[in-house]
# Entry
Amino acid sequence: MTTLKTTINTYLLSWLKSLEASPDVSEAQYTKYGDEVTGFEPCGFVFMDSCIVEVKYSQEDVKEGRLVAANLNKRLNDVFGSTFGFKVISKGFRFTTPVVKVKVSAPFVDIDGGGIFDLLESLPKHGMYLVNYDITVDCKFISTRNIVREHLLNKGVESSDILQDAHRVGNSCINWISKYKGYKVRNKLYNKYVQILESGEVREALTSKLSELVNPSHKVFAERLEDCRDVGLMRLEHTIHSSKPLHGCEEFVNNTLLMLEDCKSFSASFADQWKALVDEIYNKAVVCIFVNNRYFAYCHWYNAQTGKMQGIQKAIGAKDNIMDIVANFSFNGRPTLLVTYPTVDCKEPKVESFKRTTANITLVPGPKSSLWPNAVTVVEQRVVQKGGHQQALLLPQGWDLPLGRHQPDHWTFPDVQAMPNDP
# Structure
């Protein structure tokens, strides 16, 4: 059964694809303003980014064919602690044992002395199985899928071991398969800054994590952004498919970086990469969907190759004015298309085009996907981020840092006016 969320995403993607002025960034050349260098320089320690575990239950927990996973969060918190994040992937069976498969997100846990391997080795005592885990390092400089693919082939990696998944990950990411101590490893090298700009989350079509560039959720990632903002940030991940942690992973990471040391790469600042994205969406349309007089979704840009959309969908409050929201998420000088569906199954939605009547900033969602980011936080960021730091993340091409519902006295929301023609 198709959910309302999926239906709204489908409507949004369909309208994006139908527009002549579609904000498609699939051909963005993020390296074009950079300087050519070679290799990728490690930035910081090797850490565990996430792992997949299966939480064991008993047959008594299966009610009418469905697994009732009681106390799941408590069990996970008791083992990993409250600083880890948890997301259920699926419920099923491991042979005949009912299990819940969970993605555990780690808060930049250093694998050297961080105690994470001891924790993973203790999982069976808590009725949990390790499926795989990621070993990760952030690096300076960036490259493209095609360049890295050619380099891997020249280094002897079989073409069949390089995943043909550009339709899922785009042109700034590559995955290939290898082995470590006899276990399968999926290696992933990708432009972390571009990943945030374009996709937000791997398993979601419509998301926005742009707040991570303005107000990072973890101090280590904030340091990475600062360290790499003038040269670019590439992330190397090794997903090791093993039921137990394998010691010596840092050597495996170092060997991969050694293999890539003469790969063509680029020193390209976040500002230059942002400029390359703006080149693709300049004068293109923002698309908004409004369903059942309650559910709002928007997209600032999307990747036609991967289907990933930069934006969110959200139920608006009873007192929220839809036109205020449309104005806040519009760009200066660019058209905004608002498609209104009175009911979710409406076949002839109302289609309107708008343009801002006054120039102003453009909102992006807050850390919790709020349509009304907190202004106080941003004002503090303006003080903290010295030397034009925010300019290096989000260039003032009609878009500055987000402000929210509670504005200073001198601040006013922009208005929008109807346009005679569709964008």
